[in-house]
Amino acid sequence: RARENLSVPFVALLTGRNVDVCPSSFSYPTDFSDALNEAVQSRLQGKVTAPDLISLFRAGGEELYYRTDHHWTTAGAYLGYRAAMEALGQASAILPPEEFRREVVTDAFYGTLWAAGGMEWVSPDAVEVWYRGNEADFTVTADGRELDGSDDDTWAKIAELHNSNEHVKGLRYG
């Protein structure tokens, strides 16, 4: 029914947990997550377009989730973008990864899993940004503070805000 009530194309990207898509890294049994994924995919079939991201991410080959956080890395976000574009029938418009200049903007990112788990012995993640043109020319407003996107330290400042357990609210680019 959801598809009938929408006037725009709709794709649901249902992500698995890190342990669902990287079970070998965790020696984690996949029986439950596989059964849940199959049940969800079965219920959505013919109702909502929902690419099977768990299977896709398992075959991804790169680090698609941060080790210290529950979010996708930029490579993971790119894989999600590709799946969404393909599901929307826009495969020919997908920007190939070679069109992006990749830059590590901080190598000191400690995510929420690290903070909540108290695992101080775990090394930080690196955060990579993929640039295509003039994306570095922006302003980020986080918790009322303006961070200039042309400043080389912007991403480190964002990571610092995140690591300090301050919630970065209202990220605005413009």
Strand content: 5-15%
Counting DSSP E segments of at least 2 residues, the number of strands comes to 5
Rounded radius of gyration (Å): 18 Å
Portion in helices: 25-40%
* Dominant shape: globular
Give a description of the structure.
- With 174 residues, this protein is of the alpha+beta class.
- The protein has seven helices and five strands, in the order αααααβαβββαβ.
- The chain has helices at 18-21, 23-26, 31-44, 53-58, 74-87, 112-117, 154-163, and strands at residues 101-109, 125-131, 139-142, 145-148, 172-173.
- It has a three-stranded antiparallel β-sheet with strand order 4-3-5, covered by helices on one side. It has a two-stranded antiparallel ribbon with strand order 1-2.
- The protein is globular, with a radius of gyration of 18 Å.
- The protein starts with 17 loop residues before the first helix and ends with a strand.
